[in-house]
DNA sequence: AACGCAGCCAACCGCGAATTT
DNA sequence: AAAATTCGCGGTTGGCTGCGT
């Protein structure tokens, strides 16, 4: 009975450095797969599921751990959530260095924040006159611009400030009402404009057809020329990540560097790997992935 | 200084899909 | 083809931290 229990014992909770080491060694040897074998071999008392999650969310190279979402990233998440719904993994595939968990956490935080704003606003609005409402709304700028969503991004680059242009997002000439999220947040303390909060939340209501109301950070323009979706840095292209050219890709993610200025790598999880990304890879032999089967060639499928 | 609250994040759980036996 | 196993995703939870009162 005890023996069986012991055999079935599964470790949970925060990961220790030593466990990360074991997991990294497994990935180094066999690649990011066979998660269940880690436990069956007695390497770790973690479930395969837990191992995979740890790798995907924290140990995988190129992750932007501990970095707040840049404005561009926020914008993309909002747009893609609008389009795909809560398909976090899919949305994350458009954001280099972000995991589905990151996106999910970002979104739920945002939802909570907005819900709280709405709650606050409704309580304040009941105690305040309509006059007050109108007064507040007048100082919050609203942008109503035709959104140039198109799968053909060429020639579609917006010349207008505040218009949005995300390639590969199929949209008709819908009107996007952009509400600066920063304004929402900063006005929380003083007086909330219920109208704006409501507008923001209504975009979750599918019944809104002609006008989309989205809380957007107010930024001049998306200065990117992203080809979506970005390749995910995971099982599919792990080999690319460890390509000899990787060194140029590790300091920053080019696209988000300017806004985020965020270093990549598991900088905050454990000291052994936090010094810098180079020392992280110093631990790996040059032929570290020689043992790994190359990804299936799509043409052979 | 102590307390409460909100935000953030890592990790777990359940379930369905995909893959293997 | 069916059952078993593994994997991946989305929802949820709980702990930690920072900030305001």
Automatic annotation (TrEMBL):
InterPro entries: Homeodomain-like_sf, Myb_dom, Plant_Male-Germline_Reg_TFs, SANT/Myb. Pfam families: Myb_DNA-binding. Keywords: DNA-binding, Nucleus, Repeat, Transcription, Transcription regulation. This is Uncharacterized protein. It is found in: Nucleus. Gene3D superfamilies: Homeodomain-like. Residues 7-59, 68-111 form the Myb-like domain. One of its GO terms (molecular function) is DNA binding. Residues 118-139 are annotated as: Disordered. GO terms for cellular component: nucleus. Its main location: nucleus. It comes from the Eukaryota. The lineage of its organism: Eukaryota, Viridiplantae, Streptophyta, Embryophyta, Tracheophyta. Residues 7-55, 60-115 form the HTH myb-type domain.
């Amino acid at each position: 009975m005890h023996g069986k229990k012991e055999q079935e014992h599964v470790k949970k909770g925060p990961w220790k450095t030593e466990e990360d080491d074991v997991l990294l060694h497994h990935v180094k040897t066999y690649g990011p797969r066979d998660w269940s074998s880690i436990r069956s071999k007695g390497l770790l008392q973690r479930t395969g599921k837990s191992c995979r999650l740890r790798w995907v969310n924290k140990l995988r190279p190129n992750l932007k751990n501990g970095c707040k979402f840049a404005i561009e990233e926020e914008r993309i998440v909002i747009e893609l959530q609008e389009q795909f719904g809560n398909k976090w993994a899919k949305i994350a595939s458009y954001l280099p260095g972000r995991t589905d968990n990151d996106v999910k956490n970002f979104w739920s935080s945002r939802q909570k924040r907005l819900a709280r704003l709405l709650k606050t606003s409704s309580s304040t609005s009941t105690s305040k006159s309509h006059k007050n409402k109108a007064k507040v709304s007048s100082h919050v700028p609203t942008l109503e611009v035709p959104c140039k969503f198109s799968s053909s991004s060429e020639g579609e680059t917006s010349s207008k400030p505040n218009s949005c242009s995300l390639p590969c997002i199929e949209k008709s000439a819908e009107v996007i009402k952009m509400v600066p999220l920063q304004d929402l947040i900063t006005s929380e303390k003083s007086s909330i404009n219920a109208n704006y909060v409501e507008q923001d939340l209504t975009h979750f209501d599918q019944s809104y057809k002609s006008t989309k109301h989205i809380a957007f950070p107010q930024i001049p323009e998306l200065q990117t020329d992203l080809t979506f979706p970005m390749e995910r840095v995971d099982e599919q292209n792990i080999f690319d990540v460890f390509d000899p050219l990787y060194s140029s890709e590790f300091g920053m993610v080019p696209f988000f560097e300017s806004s985020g200025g965020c270093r990549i790598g598991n900088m905050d999880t454990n000291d052994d790997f936090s010094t810098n990304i180079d020392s992280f890879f110093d631990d790996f032999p040059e032929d570290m992935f020689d043992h790994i089967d190359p990804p299936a060639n799509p043409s052979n499928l």
